[in-house]
Amino acid sequence: MERETRPDIGYLVDQLEETEKDTIQMEEGQICCAQHQESVLRLVLYLHQFNASGPNRNEEVVVHTNHVHRFGTIIADDWVLTPTSDPNDTIVGRVQGLHMQAGQKEGNQWYTSFNLVFEDQRFAGSTLQVMGRTTAERNGEWSIVGGTGKFRRAKGTIEFTCLPDPSPFHFLKKLDIEVFYTPRNS
Fold this sequence. Notes:
The chain is mainly beta. The chain has one helix and eleven strands; from the N terminus they run αβββββββββββ.
């Protein structure tokens, strides 16, 4: 059986440097992609969480456990995002996902995973996929692990700061979003 020969990596790198095209056609239909131009966007938004025991709730307990520290409890979320801390301001997006109590030895150790779905005209329908840990600490960070629409190939972070709660049922977080993404070619 004859071994298939392929161009070496040095040859491919030289070819990439010499071309202005986005791709190089290789033998037998294989494609090697040139590096895409990445863009960065920084946003400040406010997350409004109305817990499941209050009016205007935007989360629901879907799995309740009797374990100490509520270990295993799962809550579905449809939190709203606004450009200011006012919950009556224009909704620019939603945080749709879940958070699960993941700490057996202490409370407030939430695994958080959600799609940040934009509704404003500029990014309508685009999403960021986010995951991370939420604890009793006032500050924290989540990872942006993907995106769709205007935020293709997204990565980045969301630093959050818990602000004073406007009511016992309304939790407010300031989100400092930094997202790197590949713009869709026009």
